[in-house]
Amino acid sequence: MNILHLSSNLKFGGSEQQLIYLIDALNKNQVTSYVFCFEDSILLDYVGDIKGKIIAVPNNKAYSKTLLKDLRNTVLDYKIDVIHIHNGKFVLTYMLCDIIYKLPCKTIFSKKDMSTSSSFLSKFKYNYKGIKKITCVTEAIKTRFKQLLYPKNHHKLIVVRDGLNLNDLHYNNDKDIHKDFHIPEDKIIIGNVANHVDAKDLMTLVNALDHIVNVLKVRNIHFLQIGRFTDFTETLKSSVKEKGLEDYITFTDFLKEGFKYTAQFDVFLMSSKSEGLPLTILESFYYKVPVVSTRAGGIPEVVVDKENGLLSNIKDYQDLAENILLLLNDEKLRNHIVENACKLVIQTFSADTMAKQTISVYNEILSI
């Protein structure tokens, strides 16, 4: 079975890491993968990690004749059985290509975040008859995306949860979080991994730190925030300076192997206001790092309050702060949470499980 994965993102995020995990697991199940992306995609920096051939083409508009021809030629040259679209931009490219050239393959689309445009074009392309299945990583995303589909297409929606390549997540002794970021050894580390984008609501993270340090007067703590800088970064740093928190937080920018530090966090904090299913939470589960998170998107489908993590309402920085301190001070609760979390990941969220479910979807649409 030959699968062509379409990935239009230029920068690296959870979707790109998930794609790498999926292709690796598909490869173990004798499925051949090809990745169709742009020449300036960061995926080209991960060639050694991707168990499939990368077809990189010039970056053009979604409706560009050149891009449409590149896609058609790729499908024909590599005898593609299924196109698997991982980002919304390429849905339009695929649709136009199929209308013009009548591609000889079946197609699925994977929806991984809560964002949904209700524009005429969005409704038109996502309801295109050529898309046979739409996989969603959470029930919350499925419910929200359903509003964009015509009733006749609701049957196409199916939940296929993300998974981790557990073999890649061994503990890394080559990293020392205190030495690498000049954090005093006596500091408790609260970690976060998120790019500086609106959905991650990192201002709430800063407010939680402010509440801990300046209101609750807890000073033996340091926040480590790993994530790609954007135009919003200066606003974050200005807020940190204004609140007198510069000695209590480190912003690292994007780190290619940032996940290697996760196991050394004392607590993982997720402050998002919109989420699909963050891999960073699953990684923390596996490493037995206790998770404090907001109830954003599909997170409550995975994090059960006081069973495998602690949950707060979106933007409730005071409750996030108090939950962090609760985990640090209650060893019995902390141990209960991390043991349950680790078991859940191993039993339910492996890349192998995800790959088998995805292959089942491929086989289903090929039989139509």
Please characterize this protein's 3D structure.
The chain has a seven-stranded parallel sheet with strand order 3-2-1-4-5-6-7, with helices on both faces. Strands 10-9-8-11-12-13 form a six-stranded parallel sheet, sandwiched between helices. The chain has two domains: 2-165 and 350-366, Glycogen Phosphorylase B (Rossmann fold), CATH 3.40.50; 167-348, Rossmann fold (3-Layer(aba) Sandwich), CATH 3.40.50.2000. The two termini are 16 Å apart. The longest helix is centred in the C-terminal third of the chain and has 18 residues, at 331-348. It is elongated and about 65 Å long. The protein contains twelve helices and 13 strands. With 368 residues, the protein is α/β, with parallel strands linked by helices.
**What series of H and E elements makes up the topology?**
EHEEHEHEHEHEHEHEHEEHEEHHH
Helix content: 25-40%
* CATH level 4 superfamily of the largest domain: Glycogen Phosphorylase B
Structural class determined from secondary elements: alpha/beta
Beta strand count? 13
Span between termini: 16 Å
The appropriate CATH architecture of the largest domain is 3-Layer(aba) Sandwich
Query: What is the fold named in CATH at topology level of the largest domain?
Result: Rossmann fold
Average pLDDT across residues? 94
Total count of domains: 2
The neighbouring-strand order within the major sheet is: 3-2-1-4-5-6-7
Summarize the biggest pleated sheet.
7 strands, parallel
